[in-house]
Amino acid sequence: MNQIKLLLAKPRGFCAGVERAIGVVNIALEIFGAPIYVRKEIVHNKHVIETLAAKGAIFVEEISEVPEGAVVIFSAHGVSPEVRNDAAAKRLKVIDATCPLVTKVHLEAIRFANERRSIILVGHQGHDEIIGTMGEVPDHIHLVGSVEEAEKVQVKDPDRVAVTTQTTLGVDDTREIIDILKRRFPKLVAPSSDDICYATQNRQEAVKLMAKDADLVLVLGSDNSSNSKRLKEVAEMCGARAHLVDDASEIDPAWLEGAHSVAITAGASAPEYLVQEVIAYFQQMGVEQIEEIEAIDEKVTFTPPPELAHEMAKRGTPV
User: Which residues make Cβ contacts (< 8 Å) with residue 277, sequence separation at least 6?
Assistant: First the structure.
């Protein structure tokens, strides 16, 4: 077993949007005290949710579950105007932790609709981010989740079509779908920059670098995390065996049989301590060789939401 070499992806784990969202909940708990209500999971990771719940965050599915006048936080995945209206009707104090990159997609959809274009949104049915984006312009938007759907989607005017995407998709899969749309709609308008977020792309690139030298890839992340599931798929597309695990306790020793190199990464909503626990799991088996594989040096940070920054400033807390 001590012949196994560990390859650690860099970057891995928390992105700037996730760090910001988790920070929003923690700061709100400090400023306003428990309970703080959070609509949907603030990020898609069960360990993060359990930790915040223990501090006094109450996670709800809908605004109807939040008491009138309470503090509510919108998750990193964004919400529709309907949710904002429901919160206003209950006089809730809203703190919006939507990732700025998701907000960018919302604003693109609104701009395209104002230009009277049909919008094709590439993403996964039922994902929180997709529900929020589609809610912005429900009469103008068509959801496409596969190459098959891209071949079949029908729009009002083929000459006035725009495309935007869910931020946490697989880069290669999205490129294939958009290529089909460009062929079908030659005048297709795309955003000025790629909607797939920098963190999703960087983590996928790191996995590609590792997977070619790895017998097994372990991805730390929860099953409802879209970007974590994509990391597993990217590893498999590169020819490696891959498993998505929430933590070290889910590793099956049978996976390690015949493996000489094991790559480890983590989805954008998975805490670093989970990676360290997996490293410790292997070190307890006698594994000593550990190498970090760096794809790109990430330096992105986001400021707190304005409504929270205002409260911090009132109390003299550094923003």
Answer: 247, 248
